[in-house]
Amino acid sequence: MEPETNNLKEEPSAIDTRPSKIVHPAQLGGTVQVPGDKSISQRVAMLASLAEGTSKVTGYLNGEDARSTLRAMEQMGAKADFCDDALYITGVAGQLQQPEEPLDMGNSGTGTRLLSGLVAGAGIQATMIGDDSLSARPMGRIRHPLELMGARIGLTGDRGTLPMMICGGRLQGIGYLLPMASAQVKSCVLLAGLYAEGKTIVVEPRPTRDHTEKLFQALGIPISIKGLEISIEGYGKEGPRFKARDFVVPGDFSSAAFWIVAAAARPGAELVIERVGLNARRTALLDVMRRMGASIEVEVTEPDGDPYGTIRVRGAQLNGTIIEGDEIPNLIDELPIISVAGALAEGKTEIRDAAELRVKESDRIAEMVKILRLFHIDVEEKEDGMIVSGPAKLKTPDVAMDSHGDHRIAMSVAVLNTFSDAAITIKNVDCVNTSYPEFWQHMEALGGRVE
Question: How confident is the model over 190-202, as pLDDT tens digits?
């Protein structure tokens, strides 16, 4: 089926006030340090806000998603101050306060799903709202386990979306087999389990990001991990008791992924990324790039907790590969930029088992297929992924591209066009601030040309 491409073209308008960027072809390379990990930053915001005392957080991501989560915790009693390049969070010693206004989560799906577990456990009532994009994303996957634990969850519309009303308290621990591999649902249940009576057990069908588990261990929260089974003993309605501590948030691997692909797909290019997170459940992209033929070296400089270190990339002519199965949960955010790598590689690159991409900030399968076709790339859309054939001789479209409010789409288009033959305008780029506010500056620092 040939998807329509009209929605990628800009309708005539007297004034278009949405921010845009013009990206020119360029060879990227050099040294960069990406901003703090979005997933870890949001989890630290929640757990430091629950702690007793004041935590110092170094490397916290000052992006829209992480700020939304931090503001929500302040609405429930925590205090947060940025000072001297660090964030100081004074916690509530397990006792969240009733928020006076709805918790506005902006565009943060991670913040929404994880925080719903805390709210449900803490015995307060809260309404969670978000922007148009977040309000279209399904939340039923967290409602089911939270209601099994004893909370009441109200969702909106036929698809079960925001606004979401939560009435929690007096939860009971449960055993829960995740119906899909989801670090967000897993973490939601574990965070609710902090306030539950008895044991909460979560069993994963496949390994997913384990940032929540690592932070529990760092804070001394009793947690047992046996393969794909994670369990905690709840503290009951009085809530968890643990002391504040210092946190270091490493650079976000998902942000680094754009530069990794930009260098890996360019024969002769060289790239160094410093102080980037190297959690083994986040770095499957490195295995994919190596399989495709890139030269990648990793040096771990801090092995404890969530490890971080340095990545060195040397570009080469890539070859197509298959990405599927257990790899998918550990590179779900990188799949849009992997499709770009596929367009530049010899042969076919197949992405399978990735239907989850259809319920992200946009339908990332459909949008990336439309974009690749506009660049004259041979791509076949599948229900759970796509097949990209390369190497393509890229031709920049003569229409402006719209990110549809999806930060990873905007950044993937920007990297793709550095390999093309002319400048392109990308509309609606404010969304990039959700995860990587410095993206455009870093692109220029690495040799790109951006207007």
Answer: 999 999 999 999 9
C-alpha to C-alpha distances, 204 to 42, 85, 212, 396, nearest whole angstrom: 22, 37, 14, 42
Which of 447, 22, 451, 27 is CA-nearest to residue 262?
A: 27
Q: What residue has token string 């503001």?
A: 71
d(CA 279, CA 210): 8
The enclosing H or E element of 43 equals: helix 38-50
> Is residue 333 among the annotated active site residues?
yes
Instruction: Give 69's DSSP letter.
Output: H
The two tokens of residue 372 are 């690749």
3-state secondary structure of 405: coil
Q: What is the structure's pLDDT at 103?
A: 98
For domain 38-248, the CATH class is: alpha beta
User: Up-side HSE of residue 229: CA atoms within 13 Å toward CB?
Assistant: 8
Contact by Cβ (8 Å): 140, 359: no
| One-character DSSP codes across 231-256 | EEE---TT----B---EEPPB-HHHH
Residue ranges in the chain modelled with pLDDT below 50: 1-14
Owner of token pair 């008791």: 241
Q: Which CATH class is domain 6-35+250-445?
A: alpha beta
List, in sequence order, the alpha helices (H) in 150-231. 183-193, 211-218
Helix (H), strand (E) at residue 81: strand 79-83
Q: Which two tokens stand for residue 113?
A: 């799903």
233 contact partners, CB below 8 Å, separation of at least 6: 173, 198, 199, 222
Question: Hey, what amino acid is at 439?
Answer: F
Distance separating alpha carbons of residues 351 and 324, to the nearest angstrom: 6
For residue 241, the model assigns a pLDDT of 94
* Encoded amino acid at 330, one letter: N
The whole-angstrom separation of Cα 156 and Cα 264 is 44
Domain with CATH 3.65.10.10 in the chain: 6-35+250-445, 38-248
d(CA 193, CA 118): 9
Q: Say whether 20 sits in a helix, a strand or coil.
A: strand
Return the pLDDT at 10: 44
CB half-sphere exposure, 79, CA atoms < 13 A: 6
Residue 9 pLDDT = 42
CA distance 338 to 332: 10
Q: Out of 252, 333, 402, 406, which one is annotated catalytic?
A: 333
